[in-house]
Amino acid sequence: MLSVFHLSLFGFGFIFVFSSVYSETPSTMSIGRSPRSATHLVHHLDASPLMVAADVTDARGLKAPRTLLSEYLWQQTQQHHNQALQSGFVQGIRNASLNPEGFGGYMLQDSVFCYKASNNIAIAESNATDPFIKQFLQKTLKSYQEYYQALFNTWHIEDASGIKLGQACSAYIAHEHNVAMNLNSVYFVVALIPCAKLWPWIGQQIAADTGNFGVYTKWVQENFSPDSSGVTKYETLINNAEAQGVINRNEALEVYTKSMMGEVNFFGSIKTI
Ligand SMILES: *[C@@H]1O[C@H](CO)[C@@H](O)[C@H](O)[C@H]1NC(C)=O
Ligand SMILES: *[C@@H]1O[C@H](CO)[C@@H](O)[C@H](O)[C@H]1NC(C)=O
């Protein structure tokens, strides 16, 4: 993040003094939006051939029109969106009544989630053969690393292995690991979409932009911002990937549903009152 090199002329030469905004002194800055729901790096995918629609009409032009993959995935997981919205964590935040221990419990685990996710992104990146997906994953990795470092600083975490994760968070991490290890890296983009789409959707349902959520207002505005324009690009990528035969619909549904359930179960695992 905003690491700054101060160049000072001192004594016989130049001395570089490294300083960081994540210093010992309390900061009034908030950490900002989680890279789990942020989509500002999606432009790295713009030049991918997968962003260009393939001609999916077969030689005889008989191919039946089909629901777009992205719409299919969202429709198939509809009940889970509502489960996430109705979770005690989200409703507690909406109500500004969430037990601070619950919020802390979520953020501590999320710190480790983002740390472990960055390891998984690194695996997906190293496996990626599409140069645009590779570049996107490189930038995404960097943003996760910066974010978990900031969370470690805020929550006073020295070592991730000292944080005991609940079963829901662990299962979500294991799912991403599995996708990174075993599938074409375009499926890693599929695995990222549920959070990137669900959080803005929740934001829309609770009027995140204008509502008053007490002490949680800033967190809600940053993380549940209803702007989902970046998600549309992820969706274009996976829709074209399916049309070009790079993605299989059933496999995509399994990956997507597990990520969506990861969100639902992680929210659902938090003690709220
Ligand atoms: C909402 O807040 C009220 C008190 O202001 C409380 O009684 C109720 O349990 C809260 N609901 C949730 C879901 O946290
Ligand atoms: C992805 O990378 C990991 C670690 O390098 C490797 O073990 C795994 O076989 C790779 N998977 C694919 C699908 O390339």
TrEMBL record:
Gene3D superfamilies (UniProt xref): Heme oxygenase-like (1.20.910.10)
Pfam families, per database record: TENA_THI-4
Signal peptide as annotated in the record: 1-23
Coiled-coil blocks: none
InterPro entries, per the entry: Haem_Oase-like_multi-hlx, Thiaminase-2/PQQC, Thiamine_Salvage_TenA
Domain Thiaminase-2/PQQC span(s) in chain numbering: 74-226
Keyword Nucleotidyltransferase: no
Keyword Cell membrane among record annotations: no
Key words of the record: Signal
Name the UniProt record assigns to this protein: Thiaminase-2/PQQC domain-containing protein
Organism (species): Mya arenaria
